[in-house]
Here is the input.
Amino acid sequence: MTAAPAPVDTGRWFEDFAVGERFTSAARPVTADDLAAFTRLSGDDHPLHVGPDAMLQGPFGIAVAMGLLQSLGLHGEAVQGLLDTHWTYRAPIRVGDVVHLELTVARVRRTRSGTRGAVTRHMRLVGDDGVTRQEGTTTALVAARASGPDDDGRAFGTVGWGRAVAAALDPEVTTLLETWDGTVGLRCDDEEVHLRVYRGAVIDVSRRAPHGATFTLVADALTWLELVEAPENPFLRLAMTGRLSATGDGYEYLRLTRALHLVVDAARAIA
Here is the structure.
């Protein structure tokens, strides 16, 4: 008797993920059976979860989002575990709602061992009315086929990315910074790179400058992604709406607004 062939794993490995990829799941209705089953599972029988206007328990949304993520077929045998989840509740989920998952690959970064990497997904659970019910990020540890190298173009906040940005800077930056001596930090979530500037030239790119950054431009991965993918440079718009912020010397940050706009242009060019 011939043995059946082993099932083929169709999931992705670390190298198969690219920052900026987007996926949308099929729709999923929310039923009275869902509410009853999740109430039994969680033991949360608060009055909010009873009656015709009952709301599903908050963790129900992330549980459904994880199931819809799996239905996309992205994660198979290469996934080694979940590293973190940061989640926000935007609007109630009720029986009768129909929800789907919108997923964006926000970050991919290889571990020091080189044999695996962390893949951060921004996930949004959306109703058929277009209203976001819940959203957040989750990061999975994913095995790699080989040890690299990786593309630096969208590795926001890393030294490799910082060097690529510095190399792509418009010559106008040299003129704008010819009398400036300091360090510009660029941070994405928990990754930060420092660009040491002297007489208009970037003379060093490192994880940490000896005396720290004069100021640091700060944004999350999804904001950096929008910065590099928007049809036109949205630096000022995102700064004015608070999605970009700065730490350190605020005066120097404001004084170098034009130069920072060109830094973002360089990041857009390498992406």
Observations:
- Helices lie at 32-42, 58-71, 159-167, 172-176, 221-229, 235-240, 250-255, 257-270.
- The longest strand covers residues 98-110.
- DSSP finds eight helices and eleven strands in the chain.
- Residues 58-71 form the longest helix (14 residues).
